[in-house]
Amino acid sequence: MSVASVPVDFILFALTLLGVALFHRYTLQVALTGLAVIIVYKLGFAGFKTGPGFGGLVTHMAHEWVILTNLLGLLLGFALLSNHFERSKVPEVLPHFLPDDWKGGFLLLVIVFVLSSFLDNIAAALIGGTMAAGVFRKKVHIGYLAAIVAASNAGGAGSVVGDTTTTMMWIAGVSPLSVVEAYVAVAVAIFIFGIPAAFQQQKYSPIMKDIPPGTKVEWSRVVIVFAILIAAILANVIANLRYPDLLDALPVIGAAVWAVLLVTAPWKRPDWEVMPETFKGTMFLLALVTCASLMPVEKLPAASWQTAMGLGFVSAVFDNIPLTALALKQGGYDWGFLAYAVGFGGSMIWFGSSAGVALCSMYPEGRSVGAWLKGGWHIAVGYVLGFAALMLVLGWAPDQHASRAQRAAPPAAETAPATAPVKP
Question: CB–CB of 85/271 below 8 Å?
Answer without folding.
Answer: no
